[in-house]
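ok trying this again, last paste got cut off
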Amino acid sequence: MSDDTLGKDLTDAQFEALCERAAKEAEDVLGEDAKKATCGFAALFATTLSGAMGEEADALCKMTYDECLAEPEEPSENECTKPTESCTATVGEIETCFSDTIAQAKAGLADLPSCDDLGTEFEVPTDNETPASCEIVQEKCPEALE
């Protein structure tokens, strides 16, 4: 399949390959960083809710973080929605949107607060702006982004 292939023209096998490539790219780019950032935020959140202070808070946050990292990862399922007959986005446009979304997610991970932020004012990042490349796909093939 070429980058110019329309989403509506993908065979089941081509669509599955596209979906698997997107999942592999996400794993390659985000990988362990995603788990570390998610565990760091979860540990900070749990510690903040506990009301612990000072050294007790530091110890609780680190323990929660370490326990989270030690948990085995649940296998993720490639949940892609096959484009319908009305999808006029190309494979290239869809892949660019996926790549840009993954890059945006990686940048967002760096902004998540963690145990290092205990005792400081912090904000949870809320920049959920859609990458420009995905606006095109949303227009031509909204089901590809579900």
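PB: full thing came through this time. The chain has four helices and no strands.
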